[in-house]
Amino acid sequence: MDYTQRINQCLDKVLSNQGSLTEAMRYSVLCGGKRFRPILTYTVADTFGANLDQVDSSACAVELIHAYSLIHDDLPAMDDDDIRHNQPACHKRFGEAQAILTGDGLQALAFEVLASDNQLSAVVRIDMLQALTQAAFEMAEGQSIDLGVVSKIIDVNTLKDMHQKKTGALLSCAVKMGALISDCNAKDSQALMHFAKNIGLAYQIQDDVLDVLTPEEVLGKKQNSDAEKNKPTYPALLGLEASKVEYENLYRQARNNLQALSVDTEKLQALTQKLQSRRF
Amino acid sequence: MDYTQRINQCLDKVLSNQGSLTEAMRYSVLCGGKRFRPILTYTVADTFGANLDQVDSSACAVELIHAYSLIHDDLPAMDDDDIRHNQPACHKRFGEAQAILTGDGLQALAFEVLASDNQLSAVVRIDMLQALTQAAFEMAEGQSIDLGVVSKIIDVNTLKDMHQKKTGALLSCAVKMGALISDCNAKDSQALMHFAKNIGLAYQIQDDVLDVLTPEEVLGKKQNSDAEKNKPTYPALLGLEASKVEYENLYRQARNNLQALSVDTEKLQALTQKLQSRRF
Domain A3-270, what fold? Predict the structure, then answer.
């Protein structure tokens, strides 16, 4: 079973008993998505020989945080996107109020899943919860900055900081959780953090580029929506070609970071390659 | 220093470093509020002789969850209330998008504050986080049920279940966290849970009654707003007098629950009395 099947099965199991919110949660979480964050957690943990049964809760938790953020980002008051994963966004299907509450409930559930995993020691769970709560906070703050700079001219460092919070923090956290389960040494852990930071930023710049280049049916959401909303993006600031060069450089650096690890990095190298060549 | 001063100082300290969300968070959290939930946590912990320095994080966490829920509840898509604590609601002051994100960030921050309290063992923190994440989830679910039954005729048991989730879960959690810090025995813990359940429901029925009876300037929000929104409430279902009898009975039961405790319950009795006689 590959990581995607594994996370989908775990999410399906977790999302079965949420009362009046179950339907909207299942609709929004199980409809698809690349599952890149949990795959990252699994791949890091697997690379260091962890028991994957102990990784399921953190993989689910990070994906549930991601899913909640998409539901809230799509709201009319936020990015106002009607389509997500090739289906009506949560608020189009269930109404705005239920979409807000579905996101709120998913955030609580993410932390609950992690806090309740008796397979992990309390110390490991606390370390992971510290990482995930901080990342979830930064993500909200990044989105807040993003909405604050619409139609404004900002420099590339401000954009980078915003991207780091909005997308990078949760990606880095996905890597960190894989490292925390594996109990890897300090040197490996540090190399992984550099790796995480580089792919986190690369991923978001690439998202900006794909938003411009990819047709709606492949993207699963509206094409060129950033520009239409006057959002500052890498392509808008640096141009399309320079943005491509930028994210390819970051992926290269990320692959270099992996070479510093004391273990076989084949799976992480392959994942990085797969990310770099993604089309949506 | 009384508990209200203590929690206000703690919240003031916690809310100082949230980047672009700091201002909206301080505006919404520090503007007032009865602080009943953290006071409950302090009072329970104090009753069992806990060191109050170890109670600050859970007291803050429970109040931050409460504060986030008020911000989201007030949104136009939800209860659409413009006034909260005698000032414009968060979304009126900062816009809907920032209000959503302020709530989202406060939820993450609540769990982070608790997860990061090094004065507490990892085991105690995990027990508390399990309780608080579950309560936060139930609160969102309760609000989801509430919005789903607007203008519908429901029976008193459905209303009770909804109130238990919407308000009771977090109140019970506030008591539970006080008990968890104090490491009180199983018998005391059970009596406290009965106490918590009774005041949780009493508090919400009383809220329904006060919503009808209390003028806006005392309530700090719009009077009679439940009825205007066709929300099912105890007064609507049972009548005003029967609702009063109901919540007074529940407070009486709560005081009886306290008599089963093995410690001096003077502070908890006084708090229950104070709650029962509140005007808003």
Answer: Farnesyl Diphosphate Synthase (1.10.600)
